[in-house]
Amino acid sequence: GFAEVNRERLQRYIEGLVEQVHLTDDKGIVALLGGMIERRDQNDMLRHSRVKQLFIMGMLDGYIPVEAARTFIERNPQAKVAWLEHSGHMGFIEEPEECAKALFDLLNTP
Questions:
Q1: Distance between CA atoms of 58 and 99, rounded to whole angstroms?
Q2: Which of 61, 65, 81, 107 is most buried, judged by most C-beta within 10 A?
Q3: Is 0.90 surpassed by the pTM of this model?
Q4: Are 43 and 75 spatial neighbours (Cβ–Cβ below 8 Å)?
Q5: Low-confidence residues in the chain, pLDDT < 50
């Protein structure tokens, strides 16, 4: 989930995640993935919610291509968007300061 440009810098963190995966029971991983496959689409709820929303998207995301992210954003105009230029799917780890700023800006918007 990490952008290739960040993998060397975050190597120790990634190694820790890999170790955690090896310690996780296979049944737990299967259950997690099954739940992700079976979960209902909640986009309609998002569009009608009055709660502030922020989508943080990585320009280098290997799981959610930029075009798919843009389509998702177009379908959810109620949300604010923060694009992380140097992140994959793990932007909160790859660019934590930018994520924090985006959250701060969202919370300080009337």
A1: 11
A2: 61
A3: no
A4: yes
A5: none
